[in-house]
């Protein structure tokens, strides 16, 4: 898993356990996450986050046996469909991109808007929606609204 010379390694990594590495790989590819083969193997799939502002962040999807190697001895891997331990937020360029990302997530087997918070972020000029991935991890997509959109939101 050593990177090749021409690949600039990410500077921040998010590691998640997944039930099916193949299914989750397909899911994240459909959301425009870019595969990083130099950081992947049979038990881990690595991706750069989509959208240029996020491209220095790496998502590491791990089979349960691999993920267990990284946790404290004796601790359990959280079951994200039963408990939320974190929410991951992607900053994107427009309201249309937020909505499009959720459409892609749903089409790939995820769940659109697993929770709704009325007018969430509106007072700050932010448009945010959420989706759940195949394993129950919660993601948000968010964007800053321009002045016209703030009035319409």
UniProtKB/TrEMBL annotation:
InterPro entries found in the cross-reference section: Glyas_Bleomycin-R_OHBP_Dase, VOC_core
UniProt domain VOC: residue ranges: 9-144
Signal peptide: none
PROSITE patterns hit by this protein: VOC
PANTHER family found in the cross-reference section: BLR2408 PROTEIN, BLR2520 PROTEIN
Protein name, UniProt field: VOC domain-containing protein
Source organism of the structure: Hypocrea jecorina (strain ATCC 56765 / BCRC 32924 / NRRL 11460 / Rut C-30)
Lineage: Eukaryota, Fungi, Dikarya, Ascomycota, Pezizomycotina
């Amino acid at each position: 898993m050593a990177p090749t010379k021409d690949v600039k390694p990410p500077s921040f990594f998010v590691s998640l356990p997944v039930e099916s590495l193949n299914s989750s790989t397909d899911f994240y590819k459909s959301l425009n996450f870019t595969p990083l083969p130099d950081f992947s193997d049979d038990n881990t799939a690595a991706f750069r986050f989509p959208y240029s502002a996020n491209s220095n962040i790496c998502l590491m999807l791990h089979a349960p046996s691999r993920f267990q190697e990284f946790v404290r001895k004796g601790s359990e891997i959280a079951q994200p469909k039963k408990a939320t331990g974190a929410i991951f937020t992607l900053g994107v360029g427009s309201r249309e991109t937020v909505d499009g990302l959720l459409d892609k997530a749903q089409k790939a087997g995820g769940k659109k808007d697993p929770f709704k918070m009325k007018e969430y972020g509106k007072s700050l000029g932010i448009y945010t929606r959420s989706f759940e991935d195949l394993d129950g991890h919660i993601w948000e997509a968010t964007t800053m609204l321009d002045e016209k959109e703030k009035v319409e939101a």
